[in-house]
Amino acid sequence: MLVAFSVAPSGTGRADGSVSEAVAAAIRVVRESGLPNRTDAMFTTIEGPDWDTVMRVVKQATDAVAPYGSRVSLVLKADIRPGYDGQLDAKVQKIDAALGSGSDA
After folding, report:
1. pTM across the whole model
2. Do the domain assignments include residue 105?
3. How confident is the model over 65-74, as pLDDT tens digits?
């Protein structure tokens, strides 16, 4: 199961609107979970064996952001495909292979 999510506080009271410290707290939770993960500019994607395992980490990451503002926003997208693992890398490799072959993936 893959879950891509973005979590950030609002109502931080910061003049510059930065949420980087809060996001770092969430990503720290994800990295400490031991689950395969990848972070880019917009989302963190984690891979786990089942719904409960992955959602537990998402909840903990969301809880880690809560102290930074009066509200928390969570955006989540999941790929639930039983029997598949290693998809965090495999999906990207398939696209890279298609691009290398000149295919219109």
Report:
1. 0.86
2. no
3. 999 999 999 9
